[in-house]
């Protein structure tokens, strides 16, 4: 099997930019989307899954997703994709073009009348690859009932929805303290103030990979809850989706909490400060954030 590797980082950015006005191939048969790589954590993997599925829908391509990826996501979601290509079918392809992409949007990456196989590498953190098929994405990413029940029980036990408005907050720390950045506490407190001004009674529900820190920093307030240590990442994500509004910090986990929110009319506030790392050099805010995500500026 012959492979081609196209990488968006550093020197190869210009190569991808040149695709904006031309196709990759000129054949006239079925296109195929391939996803075998599992990178990052849950938020990153959801972007990879959604982009692969979204591109296959947009361009009527056949889709191959590695069984390990499906099995892992099915531990959390009710994924029920049909007509996926099999591994034996994948192995029969004579060539696969590998495209490594972190956050760059290429508007005409694929055409449905072309005969080629494209494998997605990298995180593909661009909502434009799947936003036109948002309902199909949300349908595949419905939480398993046991996970939803845990999240609902926690919220119902702690929040009187007839009196208070729930606002979910995702606070990413962990490895971001070393390799990227974390959103400032000032931004988080200002975002909380935004909702306290807007609504009479607000309960903030924090999910985080550093819950001890969150309890010490924010938990002294009577209207702040931190999810239990026993909650898995899936439990935390489901809890975010059940809140009426969302405050995002750095990281993709909260992004998906807002995107999959049960409240389609909820406010989503996000930190506009960029990461300023080489990995994000070519990221565009409107490629990553949907139009209903709003920036809380001048807080850092």
From TrEMBL:
**One cellular component (GO) term of this entry:** Golgi cisterna membrane
**Location in or out of the cell:** Golgi apparatus, Golgi stack membrane
Q: What class of enzyme is it?
A: transferase
Topological relation to the membrane, as annotated:
Single-pass type II membrane protein
Against InterPro entries, the record matches this protein to: Glyco_trans_11
Q: What is its main location?
A: Golgi
Q: Give GO terms: molecular function aspect only.
A: galactoside 2-alpha-L-fucosyltransferase activity
Biological processes per GO annotation:
carbohydrate metabolic process
State the pathway, as annotated in the record: Protein modification; protein glycosylation
Q: What is this protein called?
A: L-Fucosyltransferase
What species was this sequence derived from? Adineta steineri
């Amino acid at each position: 099997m012959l492979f081609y590797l196209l990488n968006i980082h550093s020197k190869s950015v210009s190569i991808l930019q040149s695709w904006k006005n031309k196709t990759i191939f000129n054949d006239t048969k079925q296109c195929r989307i391939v996803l075998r790589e599992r990178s990052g954590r849950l938020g990153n993997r959801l972007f990879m899954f959604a982009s692969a599925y979204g591109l296959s829908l947009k361009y009527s391509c056949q889709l191959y997703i590695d069984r390990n990826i499906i099995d892992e996501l099915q531990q959390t979601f009710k994924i029920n994709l049909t007509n996926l290509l099999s591994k034996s079918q994948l192995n029969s392809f004579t060539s696969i073009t590998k495209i490594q992409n972190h956050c760059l949007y290429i508007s005409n990456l694929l055409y449905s009348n072309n005969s080629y196989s494209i494998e997605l590498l990298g995180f593909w953190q661009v909502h434009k690859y799947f936003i036109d098929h948002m309902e199909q994405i949300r349908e595949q990413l419905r939480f398993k009932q046991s996970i939803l029940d845990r999240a609902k029980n926690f919220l119902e036990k702690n929040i009187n929805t007839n009196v208070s408005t729930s606002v979910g907050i995702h606070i990413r720390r962990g490895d971001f303290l070393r390799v990227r950045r974390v959103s400032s506490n000032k931004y988080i407190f200002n975002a909380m103030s935004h909702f306290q001004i807007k609504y009479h009674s607000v309960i903030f529900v924090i999910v985080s990979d550093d819950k001890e820190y969150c309890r010490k920093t924010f938990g002294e307030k009577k209207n702040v809850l931190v999810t239990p240590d026993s909650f898995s990442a899936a439990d935390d994500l489901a809890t975010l989706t059940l809140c009426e509004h969302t405050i995002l910090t750095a990281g993709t986990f909260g992004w998906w909490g807002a995107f999959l929110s049960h409240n389609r009319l909820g406010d989503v506030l996000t930190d506009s400060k960029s990461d300023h790392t080489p990995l994000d050099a070519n990221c565009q805010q409107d490629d990553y954030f949907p139009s209903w995500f709003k920036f809380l500026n001048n807080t850092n």
